[in-house]
Amino acid sequence: MSTAYVVLDTLGIVALSENGDVIDKVIYSGDVDSIAEKLNKLEVGQPVDELINLVNKLKSAGFVRVVIENKELARNLSNVMSGIEIRSELPSKPGLMYRENFGSRYVREVFGMDEGQYMARVYEITVAQTRHKLKQVAEKRDLFIAQAISSVDDIDKILNLISSRVREWYGLHFPELDDLVKDHRDYMTLVSELGHRRNFTVENITKLGISQDRARRIYESSVKSVGAEMADWDLEPIRAYARIYLQLYNIRNQLTQYIDEAMSEVAPNIKELVGPLLGARLIMLGGGLMRLALLPASTIQVLGAEKALFRALRTGSKPPKHGIIFQYPEIFRSPRWQRGKIARALAAKLAIAAKADAFTGNFIAPRLKEELLKRIQEIKTLYAKPPARKPEVKAKAKPQGAPEKKGGRKPRHK
Amino acid sequence: MSSLIKPTGVKAHERFKGVYWVSFEDGSEKLATINLTPGRRVYGEQLVQWEGNEYRIWNPFRSKLAAAIMNGLKVMPIGEGTRVLYLGAASGTTVSHVSDIVGPGGLVYSVEFSPRVFREFMEKIIDQGRRNVIPILADARYPEQYLSIVKTVDVAYIDVAQPFQAKILADNADVYVRGNGYVMLVIKAMSIDVTKEPSETFKREIDHLKERGYEILDMVHLEPYDTAHAIVVARKSR
Predict the structure, then answer these.
(1) What is the pLDDT of residues B63-96, one digit of tens each?
(2) For A71, which of B127, B144, B178 is closest by C-beta distance?
(3) CB contact under 8 A, B152 and A99
(4) How distant is the Cα of A311 from the closest Cα of chain B, in angstroms?
(5) Which residues of B touch A103 (CB under 8 A)?
(6) Looking at beta carbons, which residues of chain B come within 8 Å of A361?
(7) In chain B, which residues have their Cβ closer than 8 Å to the Cβ of A129?
(8) Measured between alpha carbons, how far is A269 from A150 in angstroms, rounded to an integer?
């Protein structure tokens, strides 16, 4: 009629008698990650094999009752066990005893270690466990990011449409403004806030955040504008449309903010390497972080340039040097002949960063970035001059024909 | 920037071991702890070299425990070698100083629920090599979730934005705090009930601790560093 108390530990499971003597134990085998996984299961109340085996052994040793401190675990265990009563009690007396006298007694008795060794092990396992959990949480979020970045791209298109429409429409009334205010957002603010050009006083314009100097110029041209007269009734729809622009602009900011934060959670390495937006685009094009992580660097290099890539494969024209990673400043700001090399170096680092984000969660980006910048420096010094060859331009843009089929590059398919 | 002002001396805190006052040439005095991971910063705090030790300035506007010490906390059960169960570790600002104070012989089990801030915690605390901190991503309302990991501690410290903080603290303490151990409760009146006067909320949380058998040893308000916040130190008489 005796009761056994089951106590969970990071390194194993211990069965104690009511007065705290060790009856039996299982020590987890396997590597840090597999132990971390077991702990995660136990935490949410899923019995692991080790626990079931231990309770079975207790049963055959004649114990009729097992007390476990985790309620959920006790309940789920009693569903899979029969012939033995399973109860929960938090904290149990032997449990308290175990935790209280752990360093002085049990660490040696149960695990045969000193406390330092034990703690080093616990540290390793809990860190792995936490990383594992953080990763699980972040998992699906990569798809949210992909949607968010697509929305940003949509909004950009819409913003361009609206701004060119408003410029043309309002231009009928005040054509000079188009050249004076190049920034779309300033233009839309002026239109939506001021409306009729007679309201373009220096004071009104500066109030909207435009410098005194420019305000004066705008004011002067508003006075001698050659545009058609418009009544407020004509202007209202234009102003409403411009307001939509500004609202959308704000939404775009919120979205990029969201992407920025979500990227630090999901893919901090990629974010550190190429920034949140480009990173998000890569995840979108890859079809999720996990899939991106499984892509080879050469594919990451040309993500977003599929059209050019398949054309190259089909016709033997020159393959693209870069896809979406062209947006990386070091690439598009570099001279043409260096871009391919930088793109290749960047793609290689991105492939590593994506793997770190998807699988380990370690933050290794600072090192990657440093290596990358070093390589870029190297490229810049080694290939400072353009190659002496004839200009390579245009071949890329030609749809077919591939005029100058040089060297050994042959079409893949027949 | 204050970082340009040079330190002129360091003296130990009059009551709490492991806590220091660093004085500066402009006459100001700031709290500090000895950096367990020299050369590394956790939240952009100032590092000060003095007589072979590196001190990390402890900002009371960022850390409620520092605010309590500035406001004359009398009982601070965290010292060298202390084992602490820290509930609500967030991104690790206060945890880092607690980790400094307890030193390599102590231990800080750090429990946090939000993965968002805990990722930062991992970067700043774990990746920087603070080996006396055990990270636990779990919900402090369910102390059974970390039974496998946590052993008996000397102090349970709670700083969570949750109603029933005192209850959560006592539930954890029942399982993990040694007989005659301490609890420290950061009461965030506004997170518990915005509609009530802070003093009412303080009283309610303190009453709950008393009901659970705790003797209140000290309480300090955290103004002006944090409004409507207080820290309570209590001890269970078993």
Answers:
(1) 999 999 999 999 999 999 999 999 999 999 999 9
(2) B144
(3) yes
(4) 43
(5) 151
(6) 122
(7) 137
(8) 21
**What gap in Å lies between CA A280 and CA A350, rounded to an integer?**
12
* CA–CA dist B35, A276 (Å, integer): 33
- Asked if the Cβ–Cβ distance from B147 to A69 is below 8 Å, we say yes
Helix (H, G, I), strand (E, B) or coil at A88: strand
For residue B95, report the phi and psi dihedrals to the nearest 5 degrees: -55, -40
Residue A153 C-beta-side C-alpha neighbours within 13 Å? 13
- What pLDDT, on a 0 to 100 scale, did the predictor assign at position B193? 80
Please, how many CA atoms are within 13 Å of residue A1, restricted to the half-sphere of its CB?
A: 0
The closest alpha carbon to A133, from B44, B149, B156, belongs to B149
Interface of B with A in 158-187 (CB under 8 A): 174-176, 178-179
- In angstroms, the separation between the Cα of residue A256 and the nearest Cα of chain B is 17
The interface predicted TM-score (ipTM) is: 0.92
Contact between A6 and B145 (Cβ < 8 Å): no
Strand B107-112 and strand B133-137: pairing? parallel
pTM: 0.67
Q: Please give the Cα distance from A40 to A42 (Å, whole number).
A: 6
Nearest residue of B to residue A363, measured between CA atoms: B123
Mind telling me how many Å the CA of B223 is from chain A's nearest CA? Answer: 31
- How many angstroms separate the CA of residue A361 from the nearest CA in chain B? 9
B175: nearest CB among A90, A131, A138: A90
- Judge: B152–A43 Cβ closer than 8 Å, yes or no: no
Which helix (H) or strand (E) segment holds residue A180: the answer is helix A177-180
* Residue located via tokens 């870069």: A322
Cβ contact (<8 Å) for B137 and A43?
A: no
Residue A396 has pLDDT above 70, yes or no: no
Candidate from A9, A43, A261 with C-beta closest to B145: A43
Decide if B115 and A9 are in contact by the 8 Å CB cutoff. Answer: no
CA B174/CA B161 separation, integer angstroms:
21
Q: List, as own/partner pairs, every contact residues A386-394 make where C-beta atoms lie below 8 angstroms and the sequence separation is at least 24, other chains included.
A: A386/A335, A386/A336, A386/A337, A387/A337, A392/A318
- What average pLDDT is seen over chain B? 93
The rounded distance, in Å, linking the Cα atoms of A67 and A45 is: 14
User: In the structure, what pLDDT confidence band is assigned to residue A414 with cuts at 50, 70 and 90?
Assistant: very low
Taking the C-alpha atoms of residue B90 and residue B158, their distance in angstroms, rounded to an integer, is 11
- Alpha carbon distance A188, A295 (integer Å): 43
Q: Which stretch of DSSP H or E encloses residue A262?
A: helix A232-266
Size of interface A-B (CB pairs under 8 A): 85
| Separation CA B175–CA B154 (nearest Å) | 12
Nearest CA in chain B to A35: B148
Q: How far is CA A254 from the centre of its chain?
A: 16
